[in-house]
Amino acid sequence: MRSKKERMVRAHMNITVFGGAQPKPGDPAYQEALRLGSLLAYQGHTVLTGGYIGTMEAVSRGACEAGGHVVGVTCQEIETWRAVSANAWVREERHVNSLRERLFALIDGCDAAMALPGGAGTLAEIAIMWNQMIVDAIPSRPLILVGKAWEQIFAALFDGLGSYVPERDQRRLVFVENIDDAVKALESVERKA
Q1: pLDDT tens digits, one per residue of 139-174
Q2: Which of 30, 52, 90, 181 could bond 58 through an S-S bridge, CB–CB 3.0 to 4.6 Å?
Q3: SS3 per residue for the chain
């Protein structure tokens, strides 16, 4: 039987977490993202986020406070647009020039990704990563979407666009209701590996 340390080393993955910048400390969405970061770090994973505020801050904080490694991918375009810098829980900052470079660093740097609730930016992150897998530009990997809203949005897309979104492409997205289900989905991927 393997020791806990050996299991954690084997289980280590780089997990990108996408999500909105709106949640603030104390908000339910912030608290859930904080808990997700903690759960991922406890399992020995490295967490990658966009490195700034909201969900990114909460996931980074949760992971850091649980002893995990946190990578924040930041960019000059965002810092020019909004006066913000890497949050206090980022342990390794990867600063790039453009939003495009930032997005691809988050996608290319992960073994799996999760998307918490968010807006246009989070939707773009999901869509680009999903499309990259569809066209085999990157190896397929888990893309776990957390919350009923994502399932509703994509159900409308699948229903409304029919054959434009074949079932094999739909199956690349994993829909879960909450943080606990997201972690379980990730654990089932690890067991298959």
Answers
A1: 999 999 999 999 999 999 999 999 999 999 999 999
A2: 30
A3: CCCHHHHHHHHCCEEEEECCCCCCCCCHHHHHHHHHHHHHHHCCCEEEECCCCCHHHHHHHHHHHCCCCEEEEEEHHHHHHCCCCCCCCCCEEEEECCHHHHHHHHHHCCCEEEECCCCHHHHHHHHHHHHHHHCCCCCCCCEEEECHHHHHHHHHHHHHHHHHCCHHHHCCEEEECCHHHHHHHHHHHHHHC
> Which residues touch 144 (CB under 8 Å, ≥6 apart)?
112, 113, 114, 115, 174, 176, 182, 185, 186
If 0-12 CB within 10 Å is exposed, 13-18 middle and 19+ buried, where does residue 81 land?
exposed
Domains present along the chain, CATH in parentheses: 4-188 (3.40.50.450)
Which tokens belong to 114? 């999760």
